[in-house]
Each structure stands twice: as C-alpha cells, then as structure tokens.
Amino acid sequence: MPIVKYPRATEPLWHEWDRKAQKCGLRHRVYAVSGDQYTGEWLDNLKHGKGTQVWKRTGAIYSGDWKFGKRDGYGSYSIPDPITKEYKKVYTGWWKNDRKCGYGATFYPGGERYEGEWSGGLRSGWGRMYYQDGSIYEGQWLADRPGGQGMLRLANENRYEGGWKDGKKHGPGKFFYLDKGQLFEGIWAADIPKCGILIDFGRDEAPAPAQYPIPKV
C-alpha cells in the first residue's frame, strides 16, 4: 500500500518577525510611521509604565505614566513656543484613559492658569482659576464651567459669593462692593440680579464710598 507523505506545515515567517518585534520592558527610542517617537517602558507591544512621547507634527512632549498605550497616572504635557521654540508647560497632573482626570494644573496663553480637579479632560469638581484680568474664581466646576457654589474675586477686590450655573451667577448670592462699601444680597439668574436688597457694608473703610448712605428701612 503506497504511503502518502504530506508536507509539514510551516509557520509563516511573519509570525516569527511579529514575536521578535513585540516590545516589553524598557526600550530606547522607538519611531512610529507618523514620525512620532517614544522612549520608555512597554508591555505586550503597548506603552506601559514610565515613558516620554514626542509628537512630530506639533512638537508636543508628554512625560509620565502610561497604561496599555494611553496616558494614565501622573505626567506633564508641554508644547514649544512658536517664536522662541522653548518648551512651555501646558498641563501637569493626573491622567486617566488618555485624558486629564484628578488633580492637575493647566497653563493657558496670556498667563491664565487653573489649579484643581478634572474629569474626562474637563474642569470638574473643586478648582481655582486665575484670569488674565486679575480676577480669581474659586469653587465648584461642572463640564468645564463654574457650576455649584463658588467665589469670584475681581481685581479691585470686589467679590461675588454664591451659586453658579453654566459659568454664570445663578441662584442665591452676595456681591460685595468693597470699593463703595455696599453689599447686594439676592437672587441671580444667568448673571443678572433679579431681586434682593442693597445695604451699606464697611462704608467707613471703603476707598470710594457712595455720596449718601443707604437709609435703613
């Protein structure tokens, strides 16, 4: 009876090449097809652990923690100045699933900065925002805008304390006109005071008090 011999199945060469290409542990600089480069730790061919990524198109740099190919943990993100080419820090803090999450500080153009909590890449929770005009907001944030309870202190030291919604004064609140020595307490809606009372408050210490005191009712 004739014996039929079948050729032994051979493993495709790309299987072996793929095994050799798998990155795990610490690696020196690795380039992507796009020209981006990464230096750091890997796990199962994914960025995992400590590492630094440089994006070729923007020149931006992220240095910090990675988890299964995404920024996750603590790290800083910087971009080059278009004129001086020096790197300016944009964000330093915590990340989750490639987005800002947890406590961190962001530096905006013009000198503005935010220090506080993030969720899903948006300002959310408690935080303090320093604006370019010298005013400071400190309080709760929701979906990247002041939302909840917070205080806005203007550059002239006048301040509002109360409720916020969609980045505007909303609900019960107090506005201290410290320059005039007056206090308005009432209800706000979409940044507009709807009803309330205006009384003298620290009139004797005010730098520019109103000409006549407010009579008591």
From TrEMBL:
Residues forming coiled coils: none
InterPro entries reported for this sequence: MORN, MORN3
Origin: domain of life: Eukaryota
Keywords, ordered alphabetically: Cytoplasmic vesicle, Repeat
Pfam families the UniProt entry points to: MORN (PF02493)
Protein's cellular compartments: Cytoplasmic vesicle, Secretory vesicle, Acrosome
The keyword Transmembrane helix is assigned to this record: no
Protein name: MORN repeat-containing protein 3
Annotated source species: Balaeniceps rex
Gene giving rise to this polypeptide: Morn3
